[in-house]
Amino acid sequence: MFELEKALSKSRNMSPGPDRISYHMLRHLSTSSLSNILRLFNRVWTVGIFPMQWQEAIVVPILKPGKEPKEPSNYRPIALTSCFSKTLERLVSARLVHQLEVNNLIPLHQSGFQKGRSTLDNILQLESEIRKAFVWRNYLVSIFIDIEKAYDQTWRYGILRALFEFGFHGQLPLLIYFLSHRVFKVRIGSTLSDPFVQLEGVPQGSVLSVTFLLSIFPEFF
User: N or C: which end of the chain has fewer CB within 10 A?
Assistant: First the structure.
Protein backbone atom coordinates (compact mmCIF):
# COMPACT_ATOMS: atom_id res chain seq x y z
CA MET A 1 0.00 0.00 0.00
CA PHE A 2 2.90 2.36 0.78
CA GLU A 3 4.24 2.03 -2.78
CA LEU A 4 0.81 2.82 -4.25
CA GLU A 5 0.26 5.87 -2.04
CA LYS A 6 3.77 7.11 -2.83
CA ALA A 7 3.18 6.69 -6.58
CA LEU A 8 -0.09 8.65 -6.39
CA SER A 9 1.50 11.42 -4.34
CA LYS A 10 4.21 11.88 -6.99
CA SER A 11 1.71 12.07 -9.85
CA ARG A 12 0.90 15.50 -11.24
CA ASN A 13 -2.66 16.63 -11.92
CA MET A 14 -2.49 15.99 -15.65
CA SER A 15 -5.40 15.46 -18.03
CA PRO A 16 -6.99 12.01 -17.76
CA GLY A 17 -6.92 9.38 -20.48
CA PRO A 18 -9.78 7.88 -22.48
CA ASP A 19 -11.45 6.54 -19.30
CA ARG A 20 -11.68 10.14 -17.93
CA ILE A 21 -10.52 9.02 -14.46
CA SER A 22 -8.11 11.60 -13.05
CA TYR A 23 -5.38 11.45 -10.40
CA HIS A 24 -7.52 13.79 -8.30
CA MET A 25 -10.19 11.09 -8.15
CA LEU A 26 -7.69 8.34 -7.29
CA ARG A 27 -6.09 10.35 -4.47
CA HIS A 28 -9.47 10.83 -2.79
CA LEU A 29 -10.39 7.15 -2.74
CA SER A 30 -10.88 5.38 0.57
CA THR A 31 -8.32 2.95 1.96
CA SER A 32 -10.54 0.00 1.06
CA SER A 33 -10.87 1.25 -2.54
CA LEU A 34 -7.10 1.67 -2.81
CA SER A 35 -6.71 -1.88 -1.50
CA ASN A 36 -8.92 -3.11 -4.34
CA ILE A 37 -6.79 -1.22 -6.86
CA LEU A 38 -3.66 -2.72 -5.34
CA ARG A 39 -5.13 -6.21 -5.69
CA LEU A 40 -5.89 -5.44 -9.32
CA PHE A 41 -2.31 -4.24 -9.89
CA ASN A 42 -0.91 -7.37 -8.25
CA ARG A 43 -3.14 -9.49 -10.49
CA VAL A 44 -1.86 -7.70 -13.61
CA TRP A 45 1.73 -8.13 -12.36
CA THR A 46 1.22 -11.85 -11.72
CA VAL A 47 -0.69 -12.71 -14.90
CA GLY A 48 1.48 -10.51 -17.12
CA ILE A 49 -1.35 -8.97 -19.16
CA PHE A 50 -2.32 -5.30 -19.23
CA PRO A 51 -6.02 -4.43 -19.62
CA MET A 52 -6.51 -3.32 -23.23
CA GLN A 53 -8.19 -0.06 -22.16
CA TRP A 54 -5.01 0.92 -20.31
CA GLN A 55 -3.00 0.65 -23.51
CA GLU A 56 -5.09 3.15 -25.42
CA ALA A 57 -3.93 6.75 -25.70
CA ILE A 58 -5.32 10.00 -27.04
CA VAL A 59 -2.56 12.01 -28.72
CA VAL A 60 -2.94 15.80 -28.77
CA PRO A 61 -0.48 17.59 -31.10
CA ILE A 62 0.92 20.79 -29.55
CA LEU A 63 2.68 23.32 -31.80
CA LYS A 64 6.28 24.01 -30.79
CA PRO A 65 6.99 27.68 -29.94
CA GLY A 66 7.80 29.84 -32.94
CA LYS A 67 7.22 27.05 -35.47
CA GLU A 68 5.21 27.04 -38.71
CA PRO A 69 1.76 25.50 -37.96
CA LYS A 70 1.41 24.06 -41.48
CA GLU A 71 4.35 21.68 -40.99
CA PRO A 72 3.30 18.45 -39.16
CA SER A 73 6.82 17.84 -37.82
CA ASN A 74 6.59 21.11 -35.86
CA TYR A 75 4.08 19.60 -33.43
CA ARG A 76 4.95 17.84 -30.19
CA PRO A 77 2.70 14.84 -29.40
CA ILE A 78 1.17 14.80 -25.92
CA ALA A 79 -0.23 11.36 -25.07
CA LEU A 80 -3.14 11.12 -22.63
CA THR A 81 -3.32 7.64 -21.11
CA SER A 82 -5.17 6.01 -18.24
CA CYS A 83 -4.13 7.22 -14.78
CA PHE A 84 -4.57 3.63 -13.59
CA SER A 85 -1.98 2.52 -16.12
CA LYS A 86 0.41 5.37 -15.34
CA THR A 87 0.23 4.58 -11.63
CA LEU A 88 1.06 0.92 -12.21
CA GLU A 89 3.83 1.93 -14.62
CA ARG A 90 5.33 4.11 -11.89
CA LEU A 91 5.32 1.16 -9.47
CA VAL A 92 6.96 -1.17 -12.00
CA SER A 93 9.48 1.49 -13.01
CA ALA A 94 10.54 2.06 -9.39
CA ARG A 95 11.29 -1.65 -9.00
CA LEU A 96 13.21 -1.84 -12.26
CA VAL A 97 15.31 1.23 -11.44
CA HIS A 98 16.05 -0.18 -7.98
CA GLN A 99 17.33 -3.42 -9.50
CA LEU A 100 19.43 -1.52 -12.04
CA GLU A 101 21.00 0.55 -9.26
CA VAL A 102 21.58 -2.38 -6.88
CA ASN A 103 23.36 -4.33 -9.61
CA ASN A 104 25.39 -1.28 -10.75
CA LEU A 105 23.89 -1.47 -14.24
CA ILE A 106 23.53 2.30 -14.66
CA PRO A 107 26.78 3.94 -15.85
CA LEU A 108 28.22 6.52 -13.45
CA HIS A 109 28.27 9.15 -16.20
CA GLN A 110 24.54 8.72 -16.87
CA SER A 111 22.83 11.71 -15.23
CA GLY A 112 19.57 11.78 -17.17
CA PHE A 113 16.47 10.23 -15.57
CA GLN A 114 18.36 9.86 -12.28
CA LYS A 115 17.01 10.91 -8.88
CA GLY A 116 19.01 13.81 -7.46
CA ARG A 117 20.90 14.31 -10.72
CA SER A 118 20.39 16.17 -13.98
CA THR A 119 22.10 16.84 -17.28
CA LEU A 120 23.61 19.90 -15.58
CA ASP A 121 26.04 17.46 -13.94
CA ASN A 122 27.37 16.49 -17.37
CA ILE A 123 27.67 20.15 -18.38
CA LEU A 124 29.74 20.87 -15.27
CA GLN A 125 31.92 17.84 -15.98
CA LEU A 126 32.48 19.04 -19.55
CA GLU A 127 33.36 22.52 -18.30
CA SER A 128 35.89 20.99 -15.89
CA GLU A 129 37.52 19.00 -18.71
CA ILE A 130 37.70 22.13 -20.89
CA ARG A 131 39.43 24.06 -18.11
CA LYS A 132 41.92 21.22 -17.62
CA ALA A 133 42.68 21.23 -21.35
CA PHE A 134 43.37 24.98 -21.23
CA VAL A 135 45.66 24.64 -18.21
CA TRP A 136 47.64 21.75 -19.71
CA ARG A 137 47.41 23.16 -23.25
CA ASN A 138 45.94 19.94 -24.56
CA TYR A 139 43.32 19.22 -27.18
CA LEU A 140 39.85 18.21 -26.05
CA VAL A 141 37.50 16.38 -28.40
CA SER A 142 33.77 16.28 -27.59
CA ILE A 143 31.06 14.40 -29.45
CA PHE A 144 27.41 15.43 -29.14
CA ILE A 145 24.65 13.10 -30.31
CA ASP A 146 21.03 14.15 -30.79
CA ILE A 147 18.82 11.05 -30.90
CA GLU A 148 15.84 12.16 -32.95
CA LYS A 149 12.43 10.65 -32.12
CA ALA A 150 13.95 8.33 -29.51
CA TYR A 151 10.56 7.31 -28.13
CA ASP A 152 9.06 6.60 -31.54
CA GLN A 153 11.98 4.64 -32.98
CA THR A 154 13.55 2.81 -30.03
CA TRP A 155 14.15 -0.86 -30.82
CA ARG A 156 11.74 -2.82 -28.64
CA TYR A 157 13.58 -6.12 -28.95
CA GLY A 158 16.78 -4.38 -27.88
CA ILE A 159 15.08 -3.16 -24.70
CA LEU A 160 13.70 -6.60 -23.88
CA ARG A 161 17.04 -8.25 -24.62
CA ALA A 162 18.86 -5.79 -22.36
CA LEU A 163 16.39 -6.38 -19.52
CA PHE A 164 16.69 -10.15 -19.97
CA GLU A 165 20.48 -9.96 -19.82
CA PHE A 166 20.16 -7.83 -16.67
CA GLY A 167 18.21 -10.67 -15.05
CA PHE A 168 14.60 -9.49 -15.42
CA HIS A 169 13.16 -12.82 -16.53
CA GLY A 170 9.96 -13.30 -14.56
CA GLN A 171 8.37 -9.96 -15.50
CA LEU A 172 9.31 -9.98 -19.19
CA PRO A 173 5.87 -11.27 -20.32
CA LEU A 174 4.23 -8.22 -18.71
CA LEU A 175 6.70 -5.83 -20.35
CA ILE A 176 6.31 -7.57 -23.72
CA TYR A 177 2.54 -7.22 -23.48
CA PHE A 178 2.88 -3.59 -22.40
CA LEU A 179 4.96 -2.76 -25.48
CA SER A 180 3.14 -4.92 -28.02
CA HIS A 181 -0.47 -3.77 -27.80
CA ARG A 182 -0.37 0.01 -28.09
CA VAL A 183 -3.23 1.87 -29.77
CA PHE A 184 -3.74 5.61 -30.06
CA LYS A 185 -6.12 8.15 -31.55
CA VAL A 186 -5.26 11.72 -32.53
CA ARG A 187 -7.48 14.50 -31.21
CA ILE A 188 -7.59 17.92 -32.87
CA GLY A 189 -10.12 20.18 -31.21
CA SER A 190 -13.20 18.03 -30.67
CA THR A 191 -12.40 15.69 -33.58
CA LEU A 192 -11.02 12.23 -32.82
CA SER A 193 -9.28 10.14 -35.49
CA ASP A 194 -9.63 6.44 -36.17
CA PRO A 195 -7.32 4.25 -34.04
CA PHE A 196 -3.71 3.64 -35.05
CA VAL A 197 -1.56 0.73 -33.88
CA GLN A 198 1.91 1.68 -32.63
CA LEU A 199 4.21 -0.96 -34.06
CA GLU A 200 7.56 0.58 -33.10
CA GLY A 201 9.10 2.47 -30.22
CA VAL A 202 7.87 3.02 -26.68
CA PRO A 203 4.79 4.92 -25.46
CA GLN A 204 5.00 8.71 -25.27
CA GLY A 205 4.63 10.11 -21.76
CA SER A 206 5.12 6.81 -19.97
CA VAL A 207 7.34 6.61 -16.88
CA LEU A 208 8.30 3.10 -17.99
CA SER A 209 9.49 4.43 -21.36
CA VAL A 210 12.11 6.55 -19.59
CA THR A 211 13.27 3.47 -17.65
CA PHE A 212 13.42 1.45 -20.87
CA LEU A 213 15.68 4.08 -22.46
CA LEU A 214 17.82 4.12 -19.32
CA SER A 215 18.27 0.35 -19.54
CA ILE A 216 19.31 0.38 -23.19
CA PHE A 217 21.69 3.38 -23.08
CA PRO A 218 24.65 1.26 -21.83
CA GLU A 219 24.41 -0.60 -25.15
CA PHE A 220 25.57 2.57 -26.92
CA PHE A 221 27.90 4.26 -24.43
Answer: C
